[in-house]
């Protein structure tokens, strides 16, 4: 492991030198790619340098203790340095193992989130709206930008379905485990008897694809124009600005009617289509990986019930990792850090276990 880390540090220094070369600074694409690599290597190199510093302190303290002849006060200081550096070496070694895990190449990407009302009629549509609000507030807390791409609203203010982008560095790394069925247990606003209803909404988190990654052949696309429809409003059904794009090779259909401009709706629909095609490719890879692993948080199985939001008891339970948090109001207001960090940690632990089994 440490030979590998020496090589990584050498590569890091080489990139650092190249970033100061005029030929690189003047080449935007090359500079951008090198900066991305430099940024990705920085946490690993900094942690490795922490390890080297701790190891040097440990060796120095060990040597002094073995030589002996220390007065009482100085020996106490050296003993403390020895114990402290030993503890740091063990802790940093574990942190380095996590940083050395194979990196998901999509982690830096922005995302497109698709939420659909499931079982439960109007209440599931209202819950879809609650989930959209939750993710939007989380994105705001991270300094990310949210943009609605397409929405099919109900008369009571819910969503039969809504697609939106979250643009921010590392959005996929934080949100990729959110795909699946989300279940809610609460008393609906429409319920007069005070009975608790159970309903579901499905969430799909897609890494946003660049145009160059999926150059869509116009011959593969069937594009239809139609009039917007929805819960109502002054612009609905007045102009034929809504767009339906069908990807003929896969049969994938994307509709977008959020904008009044045909061109804007077409751009948004193609953006969603590219991301769905990239996600389809990732799902195929995940299925292959999942078949080799007994447990996995991120299989991306869209039919899997992953979480329950129980409002009467004030709790949120993630069924994949057995975590229950009694802070439903905070979570619905976008405070997802504890939940998302737990999912990431669980996935890292699984990968470390898999790696140790292979070793």
Label this structure with key terms.
alpha+beta, 8-stranded mixed β-sheet, globular, 359 residues, 47% helix
Mean pLDDT: 85
Estimate the helix proportion, in percent. Answer: 40-55%
Q: Which geometry do the CA atoms define?
A: globular
Quaternary structure of the protein: single chain
Low-confidence regions: 232-237, 292-301
Gyration radius over CA: 26 Å
Q: How far apart, in Å, are the first and last alpha carbons? A: 12 Å
Helix and strand element order: HHHHEHEEHEEEEEHEEEHH
Major pleated sheet? 8 strands, mixed
Strand fraction? 15-25%
How many helices does DSSP assign?
A: 9
Number of strands: 11
Q: What structural class is derived from the secondary structure elements?
A: alpha+beta
Q: Going across the biggest sheet, name each strand in turn.
A: 2-3-1-5-4-9-10-11
């Amino acid at each position: 492991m440490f030979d590998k880390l020496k090589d990584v540090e050498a590569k890091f220094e080489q990139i650092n030198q190249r970033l100061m070369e005029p030929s690189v600074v003047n080449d935007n694409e090359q500079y951008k790619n090198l900066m991305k690599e430099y940024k990705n290597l920085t946490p690993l190199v900094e942690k490795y340098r922490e390890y080297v510093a701790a190891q040097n302190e440990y060796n120095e303290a060990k040597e002094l203790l073995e030589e002996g002849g220390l007065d009482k006060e100085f020996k106490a200081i050296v003993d403390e340095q020895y114990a402290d550096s030993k503890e740091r070496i063990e802790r940093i070694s574990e942190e380095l193992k996590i940083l050395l895990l194979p990196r998901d190449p999509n982690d830096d990407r922005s995302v497109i989130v698709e939420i659909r009302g499931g079982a439960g009629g109007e209440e599931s549509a209202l819950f879809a709206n609650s989930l959209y609000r939750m993710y939007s507030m989380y994105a705001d807390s991270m300094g990310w930008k949210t943009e609605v791409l397409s929405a099919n609203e109900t008369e009571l203010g819910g969503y039969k379905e809504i697609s939106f982008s979250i643009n921010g560095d590392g959005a996929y790394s934080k949100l990729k485990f959110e795909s699946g069925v989300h279940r809610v247990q609460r008393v609906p606003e429409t319920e007069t008897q005070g009975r608790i209803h159970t309903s579901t909404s499905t969430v799909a988190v897609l890494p946003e694809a660049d145009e160059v990654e999926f150059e869509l052949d116009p011959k593969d696309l069937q594009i239809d124009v139609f009039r917007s429809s929805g819960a109502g409003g002054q612009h609905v059904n007045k102009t034929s600005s809504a767009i339906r794009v069908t990807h003929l090779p896969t049969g994938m259909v994307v509709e977008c009617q959020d904008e009044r401009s045909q061109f804007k709706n077409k751009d948004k629909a193609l953006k969603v289509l590219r991301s769905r095609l990239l996600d389809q490719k990732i799902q195929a890879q995940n299925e292959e990986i999942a078949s080799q692993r007994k447990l996995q948080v991120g299989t991306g199985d869209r039919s899997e019930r992953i979480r329950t939001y129980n409002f009467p008891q004030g709790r949120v339970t993630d069924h994949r990792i057995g975590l229950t948090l009694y802070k439903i109001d905070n979570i619905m207001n976008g405070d997802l850090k504890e939940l998302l960090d737990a999912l990431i940690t669980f996935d890292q632990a699984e990968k470390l276990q898999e790696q140790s089994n292979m070793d």
